[in-house]
Amino acid sequence: MSAAPRNPSLSDVEFIDPTPMPDSIPKVDEIGATSAPLQSAAFFIGAYCKEYNEDFMLCKNENNDPAHCLKEGRKVTRCAIDLLRKLREHCDKEFEAHWTCLDLNNQEYHRCRAPERKFNACVMSALKLEKYIPDSPANKPQIHLKEKPLYY
């Protein structure tokens, strides 16, 4: 009795970019993270890479051609990779606890406030980065700083 033919899975496929980047575009590694670590670090990436992000957005507003802003986009990617390495170096345990919680709780921040507080404290202490959530009410504390936040 022979085994049924195996259908190739996505992991069997080797992806090769058929159109390599021109030499004028600087090479950059992929970030290589799933959504949970990126969401956990998102506000810190925003603070740490603010200048690069702003340059990229200004560039995008200049021209609709995706190739126009590749250099700026790659700077944003390099910056995010740099921060993720620093988070792993200085706050690995807290970072992993927070993103694992997000991963197990449908990416919902409110379910992960306890590990988030520990992660935020580590990042603020080790890397001197503040977490700020845009468009939060100016006269109220940020949601991640509240001891007993109410959810609706």
From TrEMBL:
It is found in: Mitochondrion inner membrane. GO terms for biological process: mitochondrial electron transport, NADH to ubiquinone. The keyword Electron transport applies. Signal peptide: none annotated. Keywords: Disulfide bond, Electron transport, Membrane, Mitochondrion, Mitochondrion inner membrane, Repeat, Respiratory chain, Transport. It comes from the Eukaryota. One of its GO terms (cellular component) is mitochondrial inner membrane. InterPro entries: NDUFA8 (IPR016680). PROSITE patterns: CHCH. Belongs to the complex I NDUFA8 subunit family. PANTHER family: NADH DEHYDROGENASE [UBIQUINONE] 1 ALPHA SUBCOMPLEX SUBUNIT 8, NADH-UBIQUINONE OXIDOREDUCTASE. Accessory subunit of the mitochondrial membrane respiratory chain NADH dehydrogenase (Complex I), that is believed not to be involved in catalysis. Complex I functions in the transfer of electrons from NADH to the respiratory chain. The immediate electron acceptor for the enzyme is believed to be ubiquinone. This is NADH-ubiquinone oxidoreductase.
